[in-house]
Amino acid sequence: MQVMFRIFGLFLIIFTSLTSASAAPRPLENALDAVQQQNWQAALQIAAQDGRIATDIIEWHLHRSGAGTAQAVSRFMARNGDWPGLPYLQKQSEEAFLDAPTDVVLDFFQRHAPLTAVGGFAYAAALLAEGKTEQAHRLAQDFWVAAPMSYKVQQAYLEQFADNLRALHEARLREMLWLDAHASAEAILPYVSSDQAAMATARIALRKGEQGVDTLIAAVADELQNTPLLAHARFTWRLRAGRQDAAMALLAKRSQSAVFLGRPEVWSKGRKLLVRELISEKRFDLAYQLASGHHLTKGGDFADLEWLAGYIALQHHNSPTIAQVHFENLLLKSETPISLSRGYYWLGVAHQAQGNDEPAQRSFRLGSDYQVGFYGLLCAEQVAVPMTKGLSQDVSLPDWQDAGFRQSPVFQATILLYAADQPILAERFVTHLAETLPEDQLPQLVDFLEEIKQPRALVRLGKRKASQGYVYPRPLFALHPLGQKTYPVATELMLAIARRETEFKDSAISPAGARGLMQVMPATAKAMAQKLAVDYSPDRLIRDWEYNAELAGQYLADLTQRFEGNPVLVAAAYNAGPNRVDIWIKSLGDPRAPGVDIVQWIEMIPYVETRNYVMRVAESLINYRARLGMPAQSEPFSVQLKSSVFQPLAPKSE
C-alpha cells in the first residue's frame, strides 16, 4: 500500500512539474545536476532524499561512466537486472574487475559473460588463479581473436597467455582488419609474418584513403594479392574515387562465391548503391547479377537486396516467377511490419503478373494486416480491407493505475525521471519497460503516457514494439498539441512531418543544423519569418515549438503550392530540398503523370533517407486522418499518392 501511495504521489508531482514553471525542483533533478559535474558523492546524497529508486538512477549513471567499483557494479546489476542499458553499463564497468578480489570477479562473470577484452582478461586471470586452466585458456583465446583492445590490454594478454595465443595472431589480425579496428590491427603486426603485415598495411591504407597505396599493394606477396580483405579494400577505394565501373567489375568477380567475398555483409552497402546506379543506367543484367549474388542469409541488407533482385526480375526482365522466389526469400527473413508488408505487396504483384489471382489476393490480405506501413496500405487497397480499428481517440484505454507494472522499479524510475524534468531519459526507461510487458498491459502503459501528454515516448514505444513484430497503431501515431492548432496546410501533414523529423522532440538539432520540432533550417526559418512578418529567433526554434511549427507550416504551404499539393513531392522536397525534387522529376518522370507508376517512382528515389522519408510520411497521413477522427479520403491510397490532395489552405485573413 505504501508503494501505491508513493506512485500516486509521484504521479501528481509529474503534473505539477509539467504544468508549473515555478515548481520546486525534485531532489533527483538537483542530483542529476551534480552528475553533470561528476560529483558522485553529492549526487548520491541528494538523490537519497527521493528514495532508493532515485539513488539507483544516480548509480546507473555512475556505473555507465565507468566510475564504480567492481563490488558496487555487481550489487547494482543483481538488484536491477531489468533496467535499460545494462550491456553498455557492464562494458563501461568491466575494467573495475581487473583489481577486484578473485571471488568477486568469478561471481560476477559467472552471472554475466564478459563483453569486452578487459572483462575477458579479468575473468580468464581469475579462472587461472582458481586452477581452471583449460577454461581460462579458451576464454583468452576467444577474446584474443575477436575483440578490439588497447595496446596495454594486448600486452597483458601476451604476458599472461603468450603460449596459448601464439598460433592465433594471424586470425586476430584478420578479424581486426574486417572490423576496421585499425589500432588493434597495427598493434599485432610485430607478431605476424612480414607477408601478412604487408597485406594488412595495404588494406589499412586503402581503407583510410591514404596516398601511395599502389606501392603498398605492390609490396604484398603474390599469394595474398587475392585475399578477400585486400579485394574489399580495393572495392571501397574505387567507390570513393568515383571509379564505379571498376568497382562493379571487382564486385561481380568476387560475388561468384561467399568464400571470395570473405564477409559478404561488409560488401552490402556498396553493392546496394551500385545496383541502384545500374538500374538508373538501365544496365539491368549486371544490376540483377550484383543484387542476387549477395551471399547473405539474413538482416536488413539481405531484405533490401532480395527486393532489388525481385524488382529487376519483375519489372525489367519480365520474369515474375524468378521475382516470386526473391520476394518469398525476403518474407522468410522478415519480422517488422515495414519489411513484411513490402514483401507481401510485391509477392502479390509477382503473382498478378503470372495470372495467379488467388495467391495474389492471399498475399495482399496478409500484407493488409500492417496498415501502419506504406505497403500495408497498398495491400489493403488491393483487397478492399477497411482501415485498422483502434486509432480513434474515442476508443477508451484501460486505466494504467490498475496495471501490474505499476510496482516495477523501472516504471517507478520513469515516474521519477518525468518528475525531475528528464523526459528523454524517462523515455529510455518506459520504452525498455514496454519490451517485456505482456501484450494486455501495453494499452495501460499507453494510457499512462497519454495522461501525462508524452507523444514522443508514445511514438518510440510504438516503434520499439513494431521492431519486435507487434503492431500497435495508437502509440505509433501519437497526437501532439500541434494537431489542435490551425496552419496553412492540413493538420495530418503537420503531424506526419513532425513525427518523422523528430518524433516530436521540441529541442532537436540535427548535424546539418536543422532545428526544433519540425527541423527547420535557419535560412528557411528566417525567410518564412520575414514572409509572416514575425521576428526571427534561432533560439525560439528549439525553445518554442509553436513558433517552430508556424514557420514550418508556412514552408510546407510554399511547397504544396510549388508541387500542386502532391504529398509525395512535398514530403521529398521537405527532406531533400525542392531543387533536388525537380531533378528527380526530370530523371524519373513526373509521378503525377498518368503513365508513371507512383510506387516505383518512390522506390527509385536515389537517396535512401528520402525514399524512406516519403514512405513514412505517406503512411502517417492516412493513419493520422484516422487518428484525428477525420473521414477517409474517397480516393484509394495509390491515387492519393499521385493526386493533389494537399493544396495550401487559405490564410485566416481570407
Describe the structure in your own words.
The protein is mainly alpha-helical. Among the domains are: 2-188, Serine Threonine Protein Phosphatase 5, Tetratricopeptide repeat, CATH 1.25.40; 401-464; 481-642, Orthogonal Bundle (Lysozyme), CATH 1.10.530.10. 65% of the residues lie in helices and 0% in strands. It contains 38 helices and no strands. Helix 2 packs parallel to helix 4 (52-64) and helix 20 runs antiparallel to helix 21 (320-332). The longest helix is centred in the last third of the chain and has 20 residues, at 608-627. It is globular. The termini are far apart. Mean pLDDT is 94; it is low at 1-6 and 650-654.
Could you give the topology of this structure?
Layout: H1 2-19, H2 27-36, H3 40-47, H4 52-64, H5 70-79, H6 86-93, H7 102-111, H8 117-129, H9 133-146, H10 151-165, H11 169-178, H12 182-188, H13 194-208, H14 213-218, H15 228-240, H16 244-254, H17 258-261, H18 268-280, H19 284-292, H20 300-315, H21 320-332, H22 337-353, H23 357-367, H24 374-383, H25 409-419, H26 423-436, H27 442-451, H28 455-467, H29 473-476, H30 491-502, H31 522-532, H32 538-543, H33 545-562, H34 567-576, H35 578-588, H36 598-603, H37 608-627, H38 637-642
Helix pairs in contact: 1-25, 2-3, 2-4, 3-4, 4-6, 7-8, 8-9, 8-10, 9-10, 11-12, 11-13, 13-15, 15-16, 18-19, 18-20, 19-20, 20-21, 20-22, 21-22, 22-23, 22-24, 23-24, 25-26, 26-28, 30-37, 31-33, 34-35, 34-37
